[in-house]
Automatic annotation (TrEMBL):
Keyword Membrane: yes
High-level lineage: Archaea, Methanobacteriati, Methanobacteriota, Stenosarchaea group, Halobacteria
Keywords in alphabetical order: Membrane, Transmembrane, Transmembrane helix
Superkingdom, taxonomy of origin: Archaea
Transmembrane segments: 14-31, 43-62, 68-88, 93-113, 119-139
UniProt-recorded name of the protein: Uncharacterized protein
Length: 153
């Protein structure tokens, strides 16, 4: 449940949706380089004398931490986007779309550089654009504080 008239809380909920999408994209990117990861970690662990460390545990631990970090990042940034939307005086959703597009473009650019794939960059941008319809569904500017929360089920 989310308070209908609080853009920051609506931003948190929309950020969670983006977080799930970007976490899935980060897992997909890591699965695509799993063989290279194993090769590089074999050399690195051999260099530091930790040959007994199971590579699968290191890889899947990295995948889990990366997914959690992506989710958390989108959660926090989603909240901040809601706060900025409120700070701007709650303009139209077009302005929100532009704001989210900038965030998504920056995130997508970093993802494209990291994965060396423009496809992942575009996918991250599209994941961020999912923010706008979720925000529009959750946020109700005309609701007062006595309206109660909206159920998302």
């Amino acid at each position: 449940m989310v308070e209908r008239n609080d853009p920051a809380r609506a931003g948190v909920k929309a950020g969670r949706v983006v977080g799930v999408a970007t976490a899935a994209l980060s897992v997909a990117a890591l699965l695509g380089v799993q063989d290279t990861y194993y090769e590089q970690m074999t050399v690195l662990l051999g260099f530091v004398g930790a040959d007994a460390v199971p590579l699968a545990a290191v890889f899947w631990g990295n995948v889990a931490l990366t997914a959690a970090a992506r989710y958390t990042l989108a959660y926090v940034v989603g909240s901040l986007v809601g706060v900025v939307y409120d700070w701007l005086g709650r303009p139209s959703l077009v302005v929100l779309g532009i704001l989210v597009s900038v965030v998504g473009a920056v995130d997508g650019a970093f993802a494209a550089l990291d994965t060396r794939s423009a496809v992942f960059g575009v996918a991250y941008l599209l994941a961020w654009l999912c923010y706008v319809p979720v925000f529009a569904r959750v946020f109700d500017e005309s609701a007062d504080e006595r309206s109660g929360p909206v159920r998302l089920s």
